Amino acid sequence: MTTQATPTAAEREQVLRLELVKAGRELDRRGWVMGTSGNLSARLDGPEFVITASGRHKGRLTVDDFVVPGRAGERNRPSAETSIHEAIYRSVPAAQAILHAHTVATTAASLLTPKRPDPAVLDIPDLEMIKGFDVWDAEDGISLLVLPNFPDVSAIARMLEPMLADLEAPTFLIYGHGGTVWGRSVEEAQNRLEVLDFLCDVALRAM
Ligand SMILES: [Zn+2]
Hints:
The protein has 207 residues and is of the alpha+beta class. It contains five helices and eight strands, in the order H-E-E-E-H-E-H-E-E-H-E-E-H. It has helices spanning 9-29, 82-91, 104-110, 153-160, 186-206, and strands at 39-43, 49-52, 66-67, 97-101, 120-124, 142-147, 171-174, 178-183.
């Protein structure tokens, strides 16, 4: 009988870094993380997570282009949008990975809502693809949360956190900025980002 050694925390972290590197390449291939935009993260043990370092191109990441916020000895600066990831990991236990990208469709669809310093919603009709969010009772469609794009990102995170429990889907948009999704794995988060982009694209074309 063979016994499989349980991976150590360091080994698990390395696997997640590699998955995020691959996800970054895929997002870049789709043109969803132009410049150095976007950020990718995965949960480690408990509230800890690993996130892309600030200023890195997501199509050319290496396993060293990440930060574990709060870990002693970190040399990289975390992404400017780290506070949003923190809020989601703190309030959504099922979230194991979070992806944020500036896709054209998510950015443009957010502009269908009024520009205000308050949360807004983008109504998505009853499209089959909503099931890609694990939402099975969407006969009337779903409402996607659209938050204002405050220059202080932590203000966006503070507005988001109390709303997380009531979201109709594991995602939200920021006005004129892009979309964020989370899932139970990096792969699921990637799939959901594709779903989000599709729904936003249809919303734009159907308007
Ligand atoms: Zn962004």
